[in-house]
Each structure stands twice: as structure tokens, then as C-alpha cells.
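Quick entry, no commentary yet.
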Amino acid sequence: MATPLEDVGKQVWRGALFLADYLLFQRDLFQGRTVLELGAGTGFTSIIAATAAQTVYCTDVGADLLAMCQRNIALNSHLTAPGGGGVKVRELDWLKDDLCTDPEVPFSWSEEDISDLYGHTTILLAAEVFYDDDLTDALFKTLFRLAHRLKNACTAILSVEKRLNFTLSHLDVTCEAYDHFRACLRQLEQLQDGQLRFAVEPVEAAFPQRLEYERIRQLVGALAGRC
């Protein structure tokens, strides 16, 4: 059965487990770093990142979803890196250019948060958020906008599962959402804006599997580094 669009963030998808395995394999890459996760859903990947990172900004939209993230993070707070800043749950809407700073809005950003985000973030994460073309476009625009504002060079680590479907428009089995994701990656790599450039490379699925899920060949990872 298909998951309703409004509920896709309320479960842990296979691509998030795949990304989490990669994070566990690359723990040294996250040691003491500031990390931003986009479209965090349950907060699972942010929790895994926080086992090594200094601070993780776990972001999504919707007060109920963010409250669920907060509960999950609190239940797993014993896993965060010793001496780290833990996981901060914040709202980040890809359809808006600016972060919400209204103190009356749940999970809004403080000026201190924003300064830390732009001043220290070097790793961005996004797992299984490429199921809708409009949202995929919005995410890549957000990545580009953040790359302009971050003080340091950054790397985005993305994961997705290629889901094959029969479509009437093609009268064949296709993976349109994945094809659109790949097209956006190519556009990002070809884009040059002053000194801002991106290098894209695949994540080879040769790293150990530590979590329980079926690692099918349709699981795909990519690194997009600002250079």
C-alpha cells in the first residue's frame, strides 16, 4: 500500500537506513562538526549523526512532525557524542527564502542558532526526500542558497531509493522521481555562480551494513561538495 504524502515523514525509509550506515562508516568525517539535516522526518539520521557530531540541526516542517522528532531525540539523548551540543530541532521550509525567527512559532530559530548554522556547518544531509519533483526542485534551491550563506566549504550527502513504477505516459516501467533527482544533480554540477561550484560523486555501497534492512541495488547515495 502507498503511504499518503502527508505521512511520508513519519516512518524510517530504507534510504535513511542506508545513509545512517554511511554515517557510521564515516564517523571521523563528522567528529566535532556542525551538521544540518533537511527533511529529517523522524529524526533518525540526525540522531545517528549526533553520535559523532558537535551539533546537529534537525529540520523539517510541521509542528506535529517536529514534535515527534523532539521526542525521538530525547529518548535517544544517551547516544549523542560526549561533550557535543546535541540535536536541535528547528523548522526549515524549502519553499521560503528565510528562516523563521518568530519566537511565537514552535521550533523557530534564534539569532544565536542562525549565527552558529551559517558560521560552522560543513555537512548537510538529506535522505529519501526526492519523491516529488516540486519538492526536489525546492530542496536543490535550498542547498544552493545555503551554500551561498555558509562560511565554510560544505558537503551535502544525499540518499534515495530508486522506485520503479509503470506509467501510462511511457507505457513502461520508469523511475521518474529518481530521474528528476539525477537531472537536478547534473544541473547543480554544471552551475557556476561566481566562485561557487559543486563537484558531485556517487557514494559506493561498499561500506559495511550495521543496521537491519534489505540493502537493495536501488539504494543510491551521492556527495555534492561545494568547491
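second:
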Amino acid sequence: MTAIEKPTVIIIGRPNVGKSTLFNRLVGKKLALVDDQPGVTRDRRMGDAEIAGLEFTIVDTAGWEDEDPDSLPGRMRKQTEVSLEGADAALFVVDARAGLTPLDEEIGRWLRGQDVPVVLVCNKAEGKAAEPGILESYSLGLGEPLGISAEHGEGIADLFTGLWPIIGAKAEAAEAAAELEAEMDDEDLSGPLKLAIVGRPNAGKSTLINRLLGEDRLLTGPEAGITRDSIAVDYEWHDPKTNETREIRLIDTAGMRKRAKVTEKLEKLSVADARRAIDFAEVVILLLDATKGLEHQDLKIAAHALEEGRALMVAINKWDIAENASSLFNGIREALNEGLSQVRGVPLFAVSAKTGKGLDTMLSAAFEIREAWSRRVPTAALNRWFDDALAANPPPAPGGRRIKLRYITQASVRPPRFVVFGTRLDDLPKSYERYLVNGIRAKLGFDAVPVRVVLKSPKNPYDSNRGGGGKFSGGEGRD
């Protein structure tokens, strides 16, 4: 699938039924020449149209005439036939005052044999004189006709009712994609990396930052809970890989103990401050104590960072004094995968704040994960993956009714957020939502980054209960 474009709607009809007048009405300006003389329009003309927020590309075509294929009118008819290829919908316009003609009936028969959905439009329908022509048009077998007056703007809103079920989902996806393209350059990765160090008390957070800075910038000691405020320190790090100097804003936070153990008011404020630091960070490093391993409180801290949509890394500190190092590392890796099942494969590092072991590797990975956290997937590549994912594992059909997933678009970054458009989404199993989330991570380069997926059904602006419908999946919390 190519990049999502606005749906295309083609106007078809015999000469002088008001096709160009309708075209001008929908685009909001006089782009097409209009005259009582038939055959004024010879070439296809395209414009951007909108009805009640429904945006699409409208195509005006030459009047359909029953002439020799080699004549000028015959070649114009061929152009009209070709223009229907690839269209999402057709507006078949007849003259309600004149009633049906044999040429109208011929066009109707041809359209019934095509794959493009048709909306039957009775133009010039103002006044009672048009009623017989509207009733007669039912005989075309193209559904209920919509009576409008393109010249006076009457009944144009009714076109929304006819077009929305056909092109609404694609129009919404195209609108979202266009907004994203306009914001492609908004996220600046040239600024300092906002890196928060979090963990239980006495894991060595302040010691690690002091090691990076090369000075005793933060107070440390054997007593737990020395750090009370979240301290931000600007740091210039020399990247040994690129031989470049990169800016980092290091954020030291208070140790976060189990809620039941936090009794003093000051400590409660400190923990709340640490949680706010997570909210403002780009990458969060959960620091573990190698002498204590991974505890349930560590998993709760990690889960909070993921719920806030932060990019998460885990570092095992005090590696220089770790016992049974290989077994410890593998045990923590397994526990993380089990305890953080919503984001498997969180980057894990062995470091020593005392000796400096592994710190450069950890910081280099922090920049890489921020890049993934900020990544936008081109619409074309995203929908190619989406088509492949649906082909490999189609959505189920509960009760024999198909769940249709139509389009996907990336709504935002930091964290990556995707919107899937479709119908009957309330019946989509959680297991299939997890299948999509895992596929996005595995195939589109997001790996351990928290990914959010929102399922959205088309919304009808004329529906009194509108709101579009939609549900969230991904395991990291709701926006």
C-alpha cells in the first residue's frame, strides 16, 4: 500500500446536468468553467473538496456522450471511463427537472457493472417540478437518490450521508497522516538528553552521577535517603564511538521505597518529586543494587516509567562486588521479561559507579533508545507492514461477522503512538491487539520502546452520539 492519500470521488453524468457546478460548489471556488452550452468540460479537473469536515479529492469529468470512440466526444468519454479506475466513489449526476434520458440509463447500466460504489445525485432538485424526476431515478437501480441544487447549495450536506459510509475511514486516516507529515520536523534530537536515574534507596544513583561528572557534585554516603530533591545537572559527555561531545541533563532522584514504608511527610514529597522527574525525562535508567538483585519494588518503578511512556533502561550497579555475576545477570533478565511483559527486552547493563565500568556503553545506548522513542515511520512503510501483518494473521470473525482493519497511521512520537482505523473494533480480542503491538516493535525498529496503539472507528459528525469510538492497547496506560 502506498502512502495514505485522501479518497478520490469522481463526478459522472451526461452533458449539462450540472457536474461542473457541483464541482465548483464542493471545492468552494469557480475552478471549472460553467455554461448552458453542453460539452464545456473536456479534460478531467481535480480539486480539494470538503463537506462537514469530510475531506476528499473531487474529479470533474467530461459529459458522457454516445459518440464514435474516435471522435472528440468519444475520446472525452474514454477519459471519463479511465478516470473511474482507482476512484473510491462516484457521484452519478442526473437532471431531476429533465427526468431520465436513454443516455442516463446507459450510464447507469455501465456503472452497475463497475466495482466503484456509486451515489446517485439528482441535481436541479429545487421546487416541486423536480419530484417526478427524483422518483423516476429509482429505476436506475443505484439506491436512494439524493436531491440537491448545486447552483443554490441546497442538499449538499446530504452528500455527506451518501459518501461517509464509503470514504469516511480513509478520509480520517488521510487527515491524520497529513497532520503527521506537517509535524515531521517538530521533534529535535539535537538538544540535551534528559536522563533520569531512579531506583530504590542506596542503589548508588548519586554516586553514579558523581562518577560521570568527575567530582563530588552530589552528597553521597551509606545512609539511605540522602537525596530528597530531584537534582538536574548539565553534563557534557565525550562519546568514544563518534569522538563527539554530547549534552546530557542528568536527573538524580530520591530513592523510591515501598509505599507502606513511606511514612514521613518529607519522604512522601521526595518520592512524588521523583515521579515527576520521570514524567519530564526522555530516558529513564532504573538502577539496581547487584548485592540485592531485582525486587518487586524495582518492577513497580519500571512499570511507572513505562506507563508514563518513557524509554526505559535497567543498569545493575556495584558490579565490581557482584557474586555469581553471570547467573545474577541472566536471572534479572528473565525476571524483567516476566515482570514487564508489556515491553520485553528492556536494555540491561552491568555497571559500576565506583570504577566507571560500563558507563560509556550505557550512555551510548541511552541516545540510541531516545532516537527509537522519537522515531516516525513513513506512512508507506507503516502500511506495507500493516498489510503484511493482516495477511499473515487476519483478524477473527466472531459470530461470523468480519472485523475490518482498514488503515494505520502514527499519531505521535515520544512515545510512539499509532491509530488503527476499522469497524467492529470493540470485538477485537486483546490477543490480536498484542499481536499488532509486538509486530510494530519487532518489525519497525521500536524494540523495547513503549508503544501505544489506539483502535478507532469512523465517526459521523451528524451522529448525536458521535465521538468516534476507540479503545487503547499497548499496556502503557491511556493518554
